[in-house]
Design goal:
There is one protein chain. With about 800 residues, this protein is α/β, with parallel strands linked by helices. The chain is built from 34 helices and 24 strands. It has a six-stranded mixed beta sheet with strand order 3-4-2-1-5-6. Helix 1 (about 10-35) runs antiparallel to helix 2 (about 45-55), helix 7 crosses helix 8 (about 210-220) and helix 13 crosses helix 18. Adenosine-5'-triphosphate binds near residues 176, 181, 204, 492 and 527.
Length: about 800
């Protein structure tokens, strides 16, 4: 049966008939394949065909809708696009896979750049294969409306109801695919040429991770179709993140892509169990360590000080090698890779001994053509090789190096200063199995392992997420694994923290040293974080990451942001647990970001409240409540996020503001910030000069320690320039009372409280923008205008 594509004027009913016909074709293909196993030539083929037929990844599941998009081109061509392609009986494609390079190119079309696309028709579907809704975008018409109504691009994205309903869905411990709602700019990144070092910079929630993973699937379908999945590598920052993203590629049909966190990528089996001092941690990540390690490895090859003699069975003479002889052999051998050099050294040594032995044999006059050359005892040779070129494991080598000032000084040469040598020095454990290692040792062990053997697993394409934090040594480990330099690296400079926090991409690109062209893409739109939340978080940017602008947000969530001032530091934990309970009772997926110092008290508060929680720093997320440290929250997202003690997060390290920015931007829905009244971080409290005010729910504005659940549902009120609500403590401070007006009534009816709170906020805004002597006139003018309007 050959299928007729419905005309451009097709109605939903016409489209439904077509969908059904395509499904019939697909299911009959599935049946044909299922039957094929019966006629297979042998048992092995039969088993394979049978297994394939049951879960035929190239066809998709039998309840999968056949398409989600139709593209009508100016030249009259029409393409249906599905999660999987479908061909008719004549092997003509009737539905194309979203992964096809040509389709991704067309999905990159917009009203600015139509690429020959006249209309995009999106289908919302429901089980099984039923079209519920159609949304047509006629690009020329859209361009006209944009020009006439002066609509911004962000407004267009915000009004995309299909996208908005996807973004509003509740989240889970596993990241989801975005195949159906890939946006134009995202499609271009996904389909960017393979032979590049592609740098993707984007703020929180701009879709970097999602795009990078979809790009892997598209590359394996297109330019990399001839490489096997396990020649593509995806690298993330830690085990929890890896687990969070790990189902995306299998969902996209790519089962065997290698996915590793940066620690487990390294060629070593040691488990880090100590934390370095910051200066040592930074030094160990420094690319200068490459020179130091090379010198240290070369130092392990020691010329002899005295001659060695080799004895032979059945002959009385000996062969003597002088230090000079051995030095000449060493000079002949390449020292890298170390283990290969060692084997070669042994070969040349044996050959030198054999030549000398034969010479002596001839001199004895006992030699005939058939005489075997006397051989030295292998143990004697091995003992010389071991003295000159010792066999080493990377761990033994590094332990010996860091454990000896003498070795360190020699390896440091003029590369490191004496103080830096001091930073590297540490006590060597008597037994290698007892040696302790840090995270920063892993790339060094990896480097040494590869320098020793010359062998590293390489990949046709490498995707690296959260790349902005990697040390030079980690970046070099990635570079070594890249076959031709084709990589996709994604990150956000404003979220760069750790010992190698950066303000630009320059050194990352330089260290990866890809021979391929570098291409950089900046993502503009933020799809995760609600507008009010980003407005609050962006107040940190001028100091956290000067020059970086927050993404343009395309979604709003009502009552997204609440501040919870409490009386004392200890009160924060009980309040956080209350807020968590409120969200979790609504079935939301909750993340609690808490600084390390408060972790125990938070856990005690959970225990006291008899609430179960999951420690997300231990390698995975649970579906209800997750407690996570600010650093480990990077890359994750939750329906509701409770940030506890933001000031301590800011003070905890040199990039505290960035840490707080990361923590605040993990939510897809609700953000609650629990803090001690009067100690909200300055930038959040003051508001940035260029930021619009965030909104805060009256629940928190009603005063410190007020029970959040019991608060009446009131309309949101804007957060004034200073976002804290007045507290009992504030009342005592003379300057606080001068700066802000107070609501006259704190109790009373819902109506009275609404009026009081709004009045308070209007007055605060007024105090921000107008000198006090004009207030009277301004308020009279406002009252007059309201009277006119009503
Ligand atoms: N086109 C899209 N359609 C549907 N959902 C999308 C789209 N783009 C992004 N998202 C969603 O937005 C959220 C944020 O995406 P993602 O985690 O990839 O952002 P990110 O840039 O990596 O963020 P961060 O820097 O915070 O790690 C995810 O839930 C993702 O599924």
């Amino acid at each position: 049966m050959s299928l007729t594509i419905p005309a451009a004027s097709a109605t939903l009913e016409d489209e439904q008939l077509f969908f059904e016909a395509v499904r019939d074709v697909r299911e009959s293909t599935r049946e044909t394949r299922a039957l094929a196993w019966q006629s297979a030539a042998n048992g092995k083929d039969r088993a394979r065909l049978k297994a394939n037929a049951a879960t035929d990844a190239t066809l998709g599941a039998s309840d999968e809708p056949v398409a989600f998009l139709r593209l009508d081109l100016d030249d009259g061509d029409t393409y249906y696009v599905g999660e999987h392609g479908v061909s008719d009986a004549d092997n003509e494609r009737v539905v194309l896979s979203w992964k096809a390079p040509a389709i991704l190119r067309l999905r990159g079309a917009s009203h600015h750049d139509r690429r020959g696309v006249a209309r995009q028709r999106n289908y919302r579907t429901e089980p099984i294969n039923r079209i519920r809704d159609i949304d047509d975008v006629v690009l020329a018409e859209l361009a006209r409306q944009v020009a006439e109504l002066r609509t911004s691009d962000a407004q267009i994205v915000s009004s995309d109801t299909f996208l908005q309903s996807e973004l509003a869905r509740t989240r889970s411990p596993e990241m989801q695919t975005i195949v159906r709602t890939i946006q134009a700019a995202q499609a271009d990144v996904i389909a960017a040429p393979h032979d590049t070092l592609l740098v993707v910079q984007g703020g929180p929630g701009t879709g970097k991770t999602a795009i990078a993973l979809h790009r892997v699937a598209a590359l394996l379908f297109g330019p990399l179709r001839d490489v096997t999945n396990n020649e593509v590598l995806v690298v993330g920052p830690n085990a929890t993140f890896l687990k969070y993203i790990s189902r995306v590629l299998p969902e996209l049909g790519e089962e065997n892509v290698v996915q590793r966190d940066i620690g487990h990528l390294m060629a070593t089996t040691v488990t880090p169990d100590v934390v370095e001092r910051p200066a040592a941690a930074r030094l160990k990540g420094d690319a200068r360590m490459v020179e130091v390690l090379a010198r240290a490895l070369s130092d392990r090859i020691r010329p002899l000080r005295e001659s060695v003699e080799f004895t032979f069975d059945d002959v009385s003479w000996r062969v003597t090698l002088t230090p000079q002889d051995v030095a000449e052999i060493i000079d002949e051998v390449d020292r890298t890779p170390y283990a290969v050099g060692r084997a070669r050294f042994r070969e040349l040594l044996e050959s030198e001994i054999a030549t000398d032995a034969r010479r002596r044999q001839k001199a004895d006059g006992r030699w005939t053509n058939r005489s075997a050359t006397p051989r030295p005892r292998p143990t004697d040779v091995e003992s010389l090789v071991e003295r000159v070129w010792p066999q080493l494991t990377p761990a033994a080598f590094l332990r010996d190096l860091f454990g000896s000032v003498e070795r360190l000084l020699s390896a440091a040469g003029s590369t490191l200063g004496a103080d830096e040598v001091g930073l590297l020095r540490r006590q060597a454990a008597p037994k290698l199995s007892e040696q302790q290692w840090s995270k920063e040792d892993l790339p060094l062990l990896d480097h040494v392992a590869i320098e020793m053997t010359g062998e590293a697993e390489t990949y046709a394409h490498i995707v690296v997420d959260e790349v902005q934090d990697l040390s030079p040594m980690q970046l070099l480990a990635l570079r070594r694994r890249s076959r031709h330099g084709a990589m996709t690296i994604v990150g956000d400079i404003a979220q760069s923290t750790g010992h190698w926090a950066r303000d630009s991409w320059t050194d990352i690109v330089d260290l990866l040293a890809s021979p391929l062209p570098t291409r950089r893409v900046d993502l503009e739109y933020g799809y995760r974080v609600p507008r009010a939340v980003m407005e609050l978080a962006a107040r940190l940017l001028p100091e956290a990451a000067p020059g970086i602008v927050a993404p343009t947000i395309v979604r709003d969530v009502e009552n997204a942001t609440r501040l919870h001032p409490v009386g004392t530091a200890d009160d924060q934990f009980a309040r956080a647990v209350e807020v968590v309970r409120e969200h979790s009772s609504k079935g939301l997926f909750v993340g609690v970001v808490c600084p390390d110092g408060g972790r125990n008290r938070l856990e005690d508060a959970f225990r006291d409240a008899r609430i179960q929680w999951n420690d997300a720093d231990k390698g995975g997320l649970a579906s209800a409540i997750n407690v996570v440290s600010p650093g480990a929250s990077k890359g994750l997202e939750f329906d509701a996020v409770v940030v506890v003690d933001p000031e301590t997060i800011v003070q905890a390290g040199p990039h505290g503001l960035r840490m707080l920015y990361i923590a605040l931007t993990r939510t897809t829905g609700y953000l609650d910030v629990v803090h001690v009244a009067g100690s909200l971080p300055r930038l959040l409290a003051e508001g940035g000069a260029t930021q619009e005010p965030a909104r805060v729910s009256p629940t928190s504005a009603s005063g410190a320690d007020g029970p959040t659940e019991a608060a009446p549902a009131l309309p949101d009120v804007p957060v004034p320039a200073r976002t804290e609500s007045p507290t009992a403590q504030d009342e005592d401070r003379p300057d606080a009372s001068a700066a802000r007006a107070r609501p006259r009534s704190r109790g009373g009816s819902v109506r009275e409280r609404t009026v009081a709170l709004n009045a308070e906020n209007v007055l605060e805004l007024l105090a921000e923008v107008a000198p006090a002597h004009l207030w009277q006139e301004i308020l009279e003018e406002v009252a007059a205008r309201i009277a006119d309007e009503s």
